[in-house]
Write a structure and sequence with these properties.
Elements: H1 2-10, H2 17-35, H3 46-74, H4 84-106, H5 109-134, H6 140-144, E1 184-188, E2 202-206, E3 220-224, H7 233-236, H8 240-250, E4 257-260, E5 275-276, E6 279-280, H9 281-296, E7 306-311, H10 313-324, E8 331-335, H11 346-353, H12 358-363, H13 366-373, E9 380-386, H14 390-405, E10 409-415, H15 422-439
Parallel strand pairs: 3-4, 3-7, 7-8, 8-9, 9-10
Antiparallel strand pairs: 1-2, 2-4, 5-6
Helix pairs in contact: 2-5, 3-4, 4-5, 8-15, 10-13
Length: about 450
């Protein structure tokens, strides 16, 4: 009952001007009110009090910028170079905290109330502003629900028991009567039978053709979100399901089946898609997940029917897996990939992911794998990045050069005006996915 009452609130579009503008205006008005002498208790030195409040906001803003610089640029805790817009919002939020502290100290119940309200409003405006900059959540529901997709049966895909071959010929396919117009996104458990990796539920997309009574053999695409994150991110923030539905609508219900497993284990974990003391993430993806796909879904058997897509840490994993297993994957889509697996510093990554062996770490970098396993005849790797994402522009450029040298076909898409965010992902999926799907056999 209570959840039903809140349902309209959950569906509010937090990126719409109808929400952003009022919040920003309220934050400005409350901040001005908390600053003005007229809204506090009488003081013999009103100008001095105003200077203290403005000074506190300035100090708070500087501390916010220093925090972003230290944790983001120096420590690189998030693997992201923050944009000027995000830095501005963090500075304003810290400035709001500075104003709150001074209003509490200066006293007067009205000013204290205004200080609290102003700090909350500025913090809310900052959260919404950063969310718009990263392009992560469209609604409150997306922000609070990590896995919104229902669990359920796979329909006539269930119990296939083997990988089929070859993929359906689009020229001979005829959509049966009653085929759904849109695909279905489900939450499924993929057992960690071999790896014993503690994985969260995966997300599976079945296109309209896969929901028919006699589903055709289709290509499959493994999807990996970044870190921190969860398997549903590529569908919620990246809108991958909508991209697939759009392709299916233009191709008589045909599109790849998408499986988004959990290569992390938890939002704050990063086992770097290798087997280590952090978890056997590589075995979970390349053995448990691939076996489950072959046993449960009607997908093609050859590498030409298998692809892998990822963003950020997920793109790095996609490059690791596809280059190391050319007998499994024939297509890769890497959106803002790192040069090598990374968990904190390089030294930390070597210590916890590779048992302290720098040589093993170096060998796990996609460029080293390509040199060891190349050439890759018939393999397509699509790269994408945001034009304002300098570190990942450099890494993607270097990886593409290595892929070309290893005999791969490559393509590149650049999202103008975006950075290491979901705006880049949505653009990349929208413009790059049709070519990926065509290489998987659906033209």
């Amino acid at each position: 009952m209570f959840h039903d009452l809140l349902r309209p609130l959950f569906h509010i579009a937090v990126v719409a001007p109808s929400v952003l503008v009022p919040v920003d205006v309220i934050a400005v008005l409350l901040t001005v009110a908390a600053l003005l002498p007229a809204f506090g208790r009488r003081s013999r030195h009103p100008v001095r009090g105003l200077v203290w409040r403005l000074g506190a906001m300035a100090v708070g803003a500087v501390l916010g910028l220093v925090a972003v610089w230290w944790f983001g640029d120096v420590q690189d805790l998030y693997g992201v170079s923050f944009t000027p817009i995000t830095r501005m919002w963090v500075a304003l939020a810290f400035g709001g905290v500075g104003l709150l502290v001074v209003t509490v100290v200066q006293g007067g119940w009205l000013r204290r109330v205004l200080g609290v309200l102003a700090a909350v409003a500025v913090a809310l405006a900052a959260v919404l502003g950063v969310n718009v900059d990263f392009g992560a959540y469209r609604t409150i529901e997306q922000a609070v629900t990590t896995d919104p997709y229902p669990s359920g049966p796979l329909g006539h895909e269930t119990g296939v028991g083997r990988a089929s071959s070859p993929v359906v010929d689009p020229a001979t396919w005829r959509a049966p009567a009653g085929m759904p117009r849109r695909g279905k996104v489900l939450s499924v458990d993929i057992p960690s039978t071999v790896s014993h990796f503690h994985a969260r539920p995966a997300v599976v997309y079945l296109p309209p053709a896969a929901l028919t009574e006699r589903p055709p053999t289709l290509p499959v695409l493994i999807s990996l979100a970044g870190q921190p994150g969860q398997p549903s991110d590529m569908f919620q923030a990246g809108r991958l399901g909508a991209v697939m539905d759009a392709f299916a609508e233009a191709h008589h219900g045909l599109a790849p089946i998408v499986v988004a497993p959990d290569q992390l284990g938890a939002p704050d974990r990063n086992p770097m898609c290798v087997d280590s003391s952090l978890g056997r993430s590589a075995t979970y993806i390349m053995t448990d997940t691939t076996n489950w796909i072959r046993q449960h879904l009607r997908v093609g058997a050859s590498p030409s029917a298998w692809g892998i897509v990822g963003f950020s840490q997920g793109a790095t994993c996609a490059m690791q897996f596809s280059t190391a297993h050319p007998g499994v994957f024939g297509t890769t889509f890497a959106i803002s990939s790192e040069l090598a697996p990374l968990n904190g510093s390089v030294q930390h990554s070597i210590q916890y992911g590779f048992g302290g062996s720098a040589s093993r770490y170096a060998a796990a970098a996609p460029r080293a794998i390509m040199r060891a396993h190349g050439p890759y005849p018939g393999h397509l790797t699509v790269f994408a990045y945001g034009s304002d994402d300098a570190p990942y522009v450099a890494s993607s450029t270097a990886l593409r050069a290595a892929a070309n040298a290893a005999g791969m076909q490559t393509r590149l898409f650049v999202s103008e005006g975006s950075a290491h965010d979901w705006n880049t992902v949505r653009y990349a999926l929208r413009v790059g996915m049709p070519g990926v799907i065509a290489h998987l056999g659906l033209r």
